[in-house]
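If you are new to this repository, start here. Below is one unmodified record pulled from the training split, so you can see the exact layout before writing a loader.
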Amino acid sequence: MDQEDSQAAALGHIRVLDLSRVLAGPWAAQSLADLGAEVIKVESPRGGDDTRRWGPPFIKTADGTRGDAAYYTTANRNKSSVTIDFSASEGAELVREMASRSDVLIENFKLGGLRKYGLDYDSIRAVNPGIVYCSITGFGQDGPYAGRPGYDFLIQGMGGLMSITGQPPGTPGGEPVKVGVAVCDLFTGMYATVSILAALTWRDRTGEGQHIDCALLDAQVAMLANQASNWLAGGVVPEPMGNNHPNVVPYRAYPTSDGHVIITCGNDSQFQRLCGALGVDDMAANPKFRTNEDRIVNRDALDARLTALLSGFTRAEAIEKLEAVRVPIGPINALPDVFADPHVKARALEVPTRRPDGTEIPVVAYPARLNRTPATYRKAPPALGDDTDEVLSKLTELSPDEIADLRKRGII
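And here is the target side for that same chain:
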């Protein structure tokens, strides 16, 4: 980023040292990078981030050979890749030196895993008291499970999400089901991002850095949202309901003659307009269905009637009819449909990026639009170690010959 771009970026004054791998930590670091932060991804010289090998599919490099796994490109754009073996004392010292000149450090090693290298919070704080140091683990820095490894799938189960996801018990397919993307990692990455920004604001006011403890389990429990409140405030133990909503009816997928549509009536007036569009005003007036509370009590009867009505329309007909009266309705899109959708295209959610060697890597845009300091896409997800020499020359006292010697010895 040149000086002009840096001044225009919301986080152009921030340097982030990203020691994390896989998804939650890299996701947080990428969010900061999209908003202008300089993010340096520190990876092992022996293969780097595990997700570089989490394929197929793999990207195709400019010369036609197989490159990194597509998974890796999910969370690593706008970063520089530096390879350092910090299990070696010289490598750990390089990371400490870089941390002394950084604003944020993100890591997701197991509890205490960086202490033996002198890269734990206390060690980094000793060389940089203003550092915002974010640790991401499965279960946090304390508590009886703190030492356990944590993976998204495991946390979806332990954190209650799988108890409310999938088909109802006793129905075909009625077994515990995880969400189709690693939402616990993503939730935690977003909470980490927000917390880092809060800590930076505090540092700007006081000069004090701090340690942030982000746990996948904590984030997942927080994201139970209304389901947690239904239990905590109402004593209701929710169960999987398929596509039904525990508190709103109708709010589910319904079959048409050639596919499914999703209908979400968030209030009684939307339900009345739904009935009018389908030619069943008597259903809106029926005491069993007049209010949302009535509809929840009589959910099965209402769903049976709506299913019969909608089955007489094609998907396109149903969408056109209900959109005309402002009833929320939409299709269930596969990924090719998503990225071909005219609204997705208008919102420019697919972004092309290109590595210096010409390798093209499409990525998904940062979703929030800042009208003064928008997200930018300055750098494709980097090849392993692409920026090692440049970054070490800038942030350490190493000469070119010393850098070459470290490479020869496998430390970088």
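Two things worth knowing about this chain: The CA atoms of residues 349 and 365 lie 5 Å apart. The mean pLDDT is 95.
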